[in-house]
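Chain A, query sequence.
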Amino acid sequence: MPKPQCSVVIPAYNAIAFLPDAIASVFAQDIADIEILVCDDGSSDGTYEWLQEMAERDPRVRVFKGGRLGPARARNYLIENAKSDLIAFLDADDTWLEDKLSREILFHAANPEVAFSFTDYRHVDMAGNRRSTAFDYWQPKWQPAGTGFSVLADAGNELLATNVVGTSCVVAKSEFLRIANGFAPDLPSAEDWDLWLRLAKLGPVAVSSAVTMHYLMRPGSETSNRAARTNAMEIVLEANRKAGAKAWAMRHARSRILTSKAQWMHEMNKPASALAYGWAAFAYRPDRRALREALAFSRHFAKRPNSVAAANSSAGN
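Chain A, predicted structure.
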């Protein structure tokens, strides 16, 4: 049988509330010659049974069963079983917009040397309200004009400094994914960022400002993961320092980590610590965005009762 034009990789764990919309958004693409590989990673909510029914109705759906592998191992498992030379990633709670896949497939067909491509995406809350896009929020200095794809200059350092790559926006060459050994399963989080940086060392990276995906903002999911992600980001940053990352990229990445710590402290109701991390982030990257966030933490701290006592308590921790 001929290879499909693209293999879509979806890890799923207790995702029955979201997975039908995710897969429907794949079917809505104007590409018929695809395969959809889904790894049910030990769900208890009927996800696996629903997938089996879907596979019986449409042979393009291939179902695999995992035993709480975790997202990194589940994706790697599916990558190894993918038949196409191109792999598109989609998380079970995200959805693609129409024409997302066809544009990227055409670009990769014309540019086979590109290791992976990605696009902008929009945050959507649980009520369906549309929020900012990733590029609008992070304001990367390399944001391309228009909706076409362009190769990102110095991709490794740019993506180290400002990681705006949404996993569900990525289309990658399976050859490069296998050379890179896929996602690092031993990282506690941030395995996506780590993989994009390693892929950027293997081949060109292309980006488009087109918004092609809706990222679902699930309450509590980021807060519960904040500590693990911050720890993983430190590991990734140190690995790239040893590999010779540029000083400016290291400073910007350090600023992002400190901002993440500030947000974590804010969520933990530790305003003095959030304030300290916020201004430390600005010191590493003194731009408008970092200043705006530091001032926001300052305002929050000023509104707290007994803020001097809170600061002293935080300093003693």
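The chain has two domains: 6-217, 246-316. The longest strand covers residues 205-217.
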